[in-house]
Amino acid sequence: MKARILDRTDVLKIIDLLRSEGYEVIAPFSGRERDTYFEAVTDANRDQVEMHVPNPYYPPKRFALPHIERLMKVRQKNGEITIEPTIEEPKRALFGIRSCDVAGINHLDRFYLGRDFKDVYYEKRRKNLLLINMVCTEPGVDINHECFCMCTDTGPAAREHFDLQLMDLGEEFMAVAGTPAGERILKAPIFKQGNETHIEKRRSILKDIRRHFKNTNSWFSATVKYISQGAVLEKTWEQIGNRCLECGGCTYVCPACTCFTVTDREIGPNEIERVRLWDACALAGFTRMAGGHNPRRAVHDRRNRRFFRKLAHYFIQRELSMACVGCGRCATVCHGDVGMPHVVEMIRRATTEIEKS
Amino acid sequence: MSTTENIYLPKTAIVDRVTDEIAEVKTFYWHFENPEDQKAFKKFRPGQFAQVSLFGVGEFPASLPPSPTEDETFFTIRVVGSCTAALHKLKPGDKFGVRGPYGNGFPMEEYYGKNLVFVAGGIGLIPLRSCIVYALKHRDKYKQIQIFYGSKTPTELMYVENLREWEKSAGIECRLTVDRPCETEVWTGNIGVVGSLFTKPGTEIPVDNTMAFVCGPPIMFRFVIKDLLKIGFQEQNIVSTLERYMKCGVGKCGHCCIGMAYVCTDGPVFTYEQIKKLGEDI
Fold first, then answer.
1. How many CB atoms lie within 10 A of CB A348?
2. Domains identified in chain A, total number
3. N or C end of chain A: smaller count of CB under 10 Å?
4. What is the spatial distance between Cα A224 and Cα A220, in angstroms, rounded to a whole number?
5. Which domain holds residue A40?
């Protein structure tokens, strides 16, 4: 991997460079209070781009898999049907995306582009999507109480899947290229050769930052083992299910959830569009069939389902990637405190006790 | 450069004719507008399914009752929701969308040299019809073939023409039963649940070297499985096809995922041994 150094004052010039090349650049901004969000950079808001902010709740996943995405337009006139697929191929860069969200997009890559069926909508949207990763280095800003990327091994500094990685070293930033597209960016004159001091600085910051994570013992491997072996008691799943209010929030903020539903809607006379929307396995209607039969009734079955799908060894192997990236969003939004870190802990504790006795 | 096929794109299909089966169930004979699509689709296997599109209403998964050895393609559909209701309004010449075939299907070639026992209840005969017709077309490849089919009343028996034909054919045993007779139709056959046919005098179900196909409503499924296990069937020699809510049919939308399986791509055909391990209701 190629690494370069750039001045702190030059960091946002990467955005200018990409914009001049025709990229729509999406970057993090601050709203009121804790509110932060990803938005397209314009001439007007360019100077407000944040390099260190609490990670926005609404994940950048939507730039690879839109919350609502049109799949096709269908016209029906005089007995004829015309189907027109609506595939978009934007040229886009995600600036300042965190390591957990990089892992999330990698998981979507594995899921939508792997196995028997490739998703052409995802493929085209992803093709020209540049990931400019920002390493989390500011305790209390980048890293909050719910972050647990150290347990999922996805952060605070991603090791792969980014095009370019930026890390704050103080007065300077280190830029590491992860792909040829990233190396190309490094050719810009704002980048300079680094030296041993920079590498040492990076090492010491990363070593120090580990102390600032509250969640460092989520016992993922033990829980993955218990779930995969079917060792988790029905009682434990029920306890988790009882705390779930079925709002579906966890799935909508999850950077690695992949499920969607499809619906048709009218857009004009004799014309409809077929769209897909994010969907949530936490919701009761997710498996309900026409006629009312629902094979998955109880709420703990649905909770079980979500965590099983994310943590069973079988699926981790199938996609060579785990569907949890340690961002902590589910833990932040959950009203019942059954976000991933707590569930992992509940399962680990309950099952270890049984194993002991 | 290779281009990725758009897996969500339906192809236009045209209704040829519509026949009534039983109350609320109709069979739609159709073909693709483009003969190339028709040719590609005809490579389906018994037990596979297709996604049917009624534009402006939605899309639903439907099993394929025809055998690939037959000329015509058709769906047999009961009205249960908005999509199926929209389909039922179609008349010959009307157009709709189809994509597929999807799913694993029954490995009929693997069953060469075996006895086949088909057990169906109600509209559960729809997916099994494909296997039955296929097996009869390749009659010499299989040993004994038995069909046990039950419905609530005589008026709810599906594919009556086929049933009459199978009852008359030499080389297959076709036994029918109804839960109760009804006033509108004379019934001289068996009365009782489908499992009651297994132990009738004159009926002998071979257990060794036999595959049992079971399809029907959840309650019938549970009882038939019990009966089959009782007469000595191994769990891996009982196969069925599962129904699930599906939005994509290609392993992406997540709606049909149970346990470790996506019903659309890993199924819909599973052995009872596998179904038991999935860890959810049928």
1. 20
2. 2
3. C
4. 6
5. 3-212
